[in-house]
Amino acid sequence: MWSSKISLFDQFRVAQVRLAAEVLSGRKDLRVVRWPVMTSSTPTIFFDHPLSNGNPPLWACAWGDDAFGPWALFRVGDARQKMRWILPGSFRMGSPETEAGRRDNEGPPHDVELSDGFWLFDTPCTQRLWQAVMGENPSRFQAPDRLVERVSWEDCQQFVRRIAELVPGLKLSLPTEAQWEYACRAGNDTATYADDLQILGVNNAPVLDEIAWYGGNCGVEFDLSEGESTTDRNGKQYEFAKGGTRSVAKKKPNGWGLYDMLGNVWEWCLDGKREYAAVTVRDPCGPQQASADRVIRGGSWYGPALHVRSAFRYWIDPSNRYDDLGFRCSSSGREQGAREGGAGAAPGEDSAATSDGNEVSSGGAK
Questions:
Q1: Domain boundaries, position 294
Q2: Residue 2 domain-assigned?
Q3: Angle at the Cα of 151 (from 299 to 57), degrees rounded to 5?
Q4: In a 3-state reduction of DSSP, which class is residue 207?
């Protein structure tokens, strides 16, 4: 019986966590579990998530379940990337007129239904992963665990083609703008996944400090000699002389286990600008012709607080490269082939660090 004292989303997440606990304790077999999915009408609809049959994707070298839900890991050389399973569902896209920092292109708010779940990198692509796949590093702020930047949308297409050759069965893409905002919000309808935004200065919104690197905090304890001067920045949350990108996963994740969805670097989306309308849409996608500008989302280390919101949207030429622009990849979960075996990992393999630093058993090298 669903309680009326907590939100539908909270009830849904409680059901997820309880089911995960039963699987991990051995009371339920992951191979026969049916996972709860959030919909616009009821949380009691179920579907088989990609790990529920006990045969994780062929590309996975480790896999499992935690408080955030199912995850899987792939690797290229010494680079490892965790992917989170994002359940299908519905959400309110855009922002209300009362939201601080709002722009007209964020409205009207409208309901969006995503009929299919998808895998999503739990962090933006790191320089370590880009280097392992592409054999070079274009970034200004160089460090293996920092996000790759100075990559165009077209560069990202080369990356996904190359990684398909290196990791059998893995077919990546960029997320659509709707998928990106759905994943960023993680069930929240506030300006950020932490709370609504109170903008005290151009680069000062205190709620951002725990979740994002932006113009107000990007230089706090900055750890590279290469940095952008910030002495002319007005209204910073903290005082610092230079800033830039930061290592991934150093701020609090959202409710679905995704790091740096806001701030650090802008992230490319698959599609171009879609005009919003006050109607419910299913699986929307903006223009995709070669000449179309592509949407970027999330704000960056360089930008003001108003950019670092779930609904803020911008679009640029797909050939552009900037030192505050990166990406994260998605995958439909429909890749052919699956690895046989139960939850956890391929048995008898060595330990390997995940992208958030946890240790799990891992399968063989791809």
A1: 86-341
A2: no
A3: 90
A4: helix
